[in-house]
Specification:
- With about 625 residues, the protein is α/β, with parallel strands linked by helices.
- α1 runs antiparallel to α2 (about 35-65), α2 packs across α3 and α3 (about 70-95) packs antiparallel against α4.
- It has helices at about 1-30, 35-65, 70-95, 105-130, 140-160, 200-205, 220-230, 235-240, 255-260, 300, 305-315, 330-340, 385-410, 445, 475-480, 500-510, 515-520, 585-600, 615-620; strands at about 180-185, 210-215, 265-270, 350-355, 360, 370, 420-425, 430, 435, 450, 450-455, 465-470, 525-530, 535-540, 545-550, 565.
- About 45% of the residues lie in helices and about 10% in strands.
- The protein folds into two domains: about 1-160, no CATH class; about 180-525, Alkaline Phosphatase, subunit A (3-Layer(aba) Sandwich).
- The strands form four sheets. Strands 1, 2, 3, 4, 7, 10, 11 and 12 form an eight-stranded mixed beta sheet that branches. A four-stranded antiparallel beta sheet has the order 13-14-15-16, with helices on one face.
- A hairpin with a 2-residue loop joins β13 (about 525-530) and β14 (about 535-540).
């Protein structure tokens, strides 16, 4: 039985070492919010390693029951450590290098071979070290308990220690009469998921405010889209692609600007890709991410590979699904926001990220039934009616919660003078183009979303804006409503600029959108870097061009070829005109590639700013650089 004990001890030490190392790497790559992952990783991976070590210990007992304990301990340690490291490398390569598209078989073979060779070398080196040094004590029961227990104590002391508070300058006095600003984003809300019966609250808000009929987001991926909403820059500039990517501290966010102007700021991210640890909390006084994660895990632990596998296995057998295991309910978020409002004076800026409309979609009234991507990544077309019914119910639940919140604002006397923005970071595909969910295409059902702006005092109530606007225009608009001013580096422009009234009059009288100064440079750049897809699109009045920089292997929809759509005659984007070889498509491609290049060059913190005069003047001619950079291009 001694070999079995050796296996368990060696496996536990190997697993804990790997878990602590992964937690350390994750903490290094993120803004420190809390350190639970260090203790959790040490313990969880240690238990998994002990289970694997038990298997190897039993094998040793059956095959060769006699031998020196240090050598057997080293063999079991290597047999657990090497595969664990290979699995983690595979996962991080998949997410970081191959963007969720899966690691090629050739690379998997190399990893497996390296793991085998590394394991043999580790066993040989470890055996010699243990035999010839005092470290051989770890192969005894007392030595293992002392070593592993001491490591666990240190890991949990660090895990439970408080994080250093970030120093923030005192907020200045706000501008006189500055309005409260509330940005409410329903993740996954489609532009066509509207109507008096479905969204009476959203419709009433639109009647009391300004509705933008064509609002184009920056991406169909939540992290990318919200990064653009917060920073007013394109995806090529902020470089946040898929889940787990960090928003650069070099960017100036809307919350930072408003806090500097005297606002108290509250963010309710409610999505694992939008946490403070990933940089999205910049400028917020309070920014909690607080779903009831299984096994008492916190945000830092939720990203550990081992925990994600454990959570997926646990939820796969769960019969009664609880909303709180996935995200905070809208009612909880609004209650938190109302408490924040009541806690102090001064204007408030709040961002509320609603997840009712994001999969998994729960059945309302809540009965524990839900369906999402994890349950069925590629549902059969026959399920469209079922899933659409769940989705519609979720939209209705989000609208009902909003109604209660707005009523409470009104009771407090803060609704009339406030700015309320209701929007969505992206829509969702319900088999519109043969697929589901979001984050894999740039069709309009996922990149054109609602945008309603209720202004103080009912100003411009009932206005419908027919021209195209962009998500990156929201932040500059809110800064202007908070007192005005420009922000260096922002790429959006005020939605209610100087020519707004003239443009609205012209559009109304001619029946055409896209006239006048305000709308002249509102070409929308949309980008996707998610799950193996790299797509870029240029959407302008009546036309959209989509180019694939990279597509997932085995993409059933074959999005690799350019796609050009006439949005006037073909709003469902069913007929690709790019095959006709039109000169218009070539011109749009040149404009799109120039736009992506210009936006990428704007990311001055992660690449050198090198541009010769010819390149600069070409971008100036296309309207993608400010006039201050184009003085010698006349």
């Amino acid at each position: 039985m001694r070999n079995i004990g050796l296996g368990v001890g060696a496996g536990a030490c190997a697993g804990s070492l790997v878990g602590a190392f992964e937690a350390f790497l994750r903490l290094q790559a993120r803004v420190p919010v809390e350190y639970q992952s260090f203790g959790y990783g040490y313990t969880l991976y240690g238990l998994a390693g002990a289970a694997a070590g038990l298997v190897f210990g039993v094998l040793l007992q059956l095959v060769s029951p006699h031998g020196r304990a240090p050598r057997r301990w080293a063999a079991c340690f290597a047999a657990v450590f090497a595969p664990l490291v290979a699995v983690l490398l595979h996962h991080h390569l998949d997410m970081g290098v191959y963007e969720g598209d899966g690691v090629p078989l050739g690379v998997v073979a190399v990893l497996a071979g390296a793991g085998l060779v590394g394991g043999v070398l580790l066993a040989w080196v470890g055996a010699n070290v243990l035999v010839k040094t005092p470290l051989q004590a770890i192969s005894s029961a007392k030595g293992f308990v002392a070593a592993w227990g001491g490591g666990a104590s240190l890991a949990w002391i660090f895990a439970l220690s408080p994080t250093p508070e970030a120093a923030q300058a005192p907020a200045p006095a706000p501008s006189p009469g500055a309005p409260d600003i509330f940005v409410i984003a329903w993740d996954g809300w489609r532009a066509d998921a509207r109507g008096p019966a479905l969204t009476p609250t959203a419709d009433a808000l639109a009647l009391g405010g300004v509705e933008f009929e064509t609002h184009v987001v920056a991406s169909s991926s939540t992290a990318s889209s919200v990064a653009s909403l917060f920073s007013s820059v394109a995806v090529s500039t902020h470089a946040v692609g898929g889940p787990g990517e960090r928003l650069s501290a070099e960017l100036v966010t809307l919350a930072e600007v408003l806090r500097e102007r005297g606002y108290r700021t509250l963010g309710l991210p409610n999505h694992p890709s939008l946490t403070a640890a990933l940089g999205f909390g910049q400028g917020f006084d309070v920014y909690p991410y607080a779903p009831s994660l299984p096994f008492a895990a916190t945000e830092s632990t939720s990203g550990l590979t081992g925990y994600r596998l454990l959570r997926a296995a646990w939820m796969a057998q769960e019969r009664h699904r609880e909303v709180e295991r996935h995200h905070e309910r809208a009612e909880t978020q609004y209650a938190r926001l109302l408490g924040f409002l009541d806690a102090g004076p001064g204007p408030v800026f709040a961002y509320v990220h609603g997840m009712e409309t994001h999969e998994p979609w729960f059945r309302y009234p809540l009965d524990g039934h839900a369906v999402g991507r994890a349950d069925d990544p590629w549902p059969d077309a026959a399920r469209r009616q079922e899933l659409r019914g769940l989705y519609v119910g979720a939209v209705g639940a989000a609208d009902a919660a909003l109604r209660v919140f707005l009523r409470e604002l009104d009771v407090r006397g803060r609704l009339e003078a406030s700015v309320v923005v209701l929007t969505s970071p992206h829509g969702v595909e319900l088999y519109d183009h043969g697929g589901w969910w979001a984050g894999s295409t740039l069709y309009d059902e996922v990149v054109v979303t609602p945008l309603v702006v209720k202004l103080p005092g009912g100003h411009r109530a009932g206005t419908r804006v027919p021209w195209q606007v962009r998500q990156i225009d929201v932040a500059p608009t809110l800064v202007d409503l908070a007192g005005g001013g420009t922000v260096d580096g922002w790429q959006g422009t005020d939605l209610f600029g100087d020519s707004f009234e003239l443009d609205l009059e012209a559009a109304t009288s001619t029946g055409r959108a896209g006239v006048g100064g305000l709308t002249a440079n509102r070409d929308a750049l949309v980008e996707l870097r998610h799950e193996g897809s790299r797509l870029v699109a240029l959407r302008r009045v009546g036309r959209k061009l989509v180019l694939a920089q990279r597509t997932p292997r085995g993409d059933p929809r074959r999005q690799g070829a350019p796609q050009l759509f006439d949005l006037v005659t073909d709003p469902q984007e069913e007929h690709n005109l790019a095959t006709a070889g039109s000169t218009e498509g070539a011109a749009m491609r040149a404009a799109l590639e120039a736009m992506v290049e210009a936006r990428a060059r704007a990311a001055s913190w992660n690449q050198p700013q090198v541009m010769d005069r010819a390149e600069r003047c070409r971008l100036c001619a296309l309207g993608y650089l400010p006039p201050s950079d184009c003085g010698d291009c006349r």
